[in-house]
Amino acid sequence: MAQVTTSAPAQAAPTTLRPLHDRVLVKRFEEREDTYGSILIPDSAREKPQEGTVIAVGTGRVTEGGTTLPLALKPGDRILFGKYSGSEVKLGGETYLIMKEEDVLGVLGS
Questions:
Q1: Cα–Cα distance, 59 to 54 (Å, whole number)
Q2: What is the rounded distance in angstroms from the CA atom of residue 110 to the CA atom of residue 108?
Q3: In a domain, 7, yes or no
Q4: 8 in any annotated domain
Q5: Domain coverage including residue 87
Q6: Nearest to residue 81, comparing CAs of 52, 105, 47?
Q7: 47-103 per-position pLDDT tens digit
Q8: Does 47 map to a domain?
Q9: Is the alpha carbon torsion for 85, 18, 5, 72 positive or negative?
Q10: Number of domains in the chain
Q11: Residue 108 backbone phi and psi in degrees, to 5
Q12: DSSP state of 83
């Protein structure tokens, strides 16, 4: 199981985040510096990429009967997700998304 270790502010111990159940931790791809002709597009008008890399996955979805179904995603998968999917979290100065597996639209590449 993949875990993310980040260093928090100076006096705190490093933080490890492991998603629960059917959730995945995603690092969104970097935004491009867009221009239209010679006009620089401001940050507020840019759309955030809807692609990212899976960093860590939870143990799986728990059914009503108590059975755990493993996730189809694995760390390292390049994924496509909806515009409003997930919740942003900041860990060690980096921004990540935590979302349910069902919010993932597909896996890119093979």
A1: 14
A2: 7
A3: no
A4: no
A5: 17-30+38-108
A6: 105
A7: 677 899 999 999 999 999 999 999 999 999 999 999 889 999 998 888 899 999 999
A8: yes
A9: negative
A10: 1
A11: -85, 145
A12: T
Cα separations (Å) of 58 from 1, 18, 27?
Answer: 8, 7, 15
Token digits of residue 40: 């620089």
Instruction: Say if 54 falls within a structural domain.
Output: yes
Dig out the tokens for 35 from the structure: 């221009």
- Residue 20 tokens, joined: 């629960």
Residue 34 · residue 46 · CB < 8 Å? yes
Amino acid identity for residue 12 in this structure: A
Query: Measured between alpha carbons, how far is 110 from 98 in angstroms, rounded to an integer?
Result: 23
The answer to whether 81 touches 109, Cβ cutoff 8 Å, is: no
Instruction: Please report, for the domain that includes residue 80, its CATH number.
Output: 2.30.33.40
pTM here?
0.71
pLDDT digits (tens, 9 = 90+) for 4-58: 544 433 333 235 788 999 999 999 887 665 555 667 766 665 667 789 999 999 9
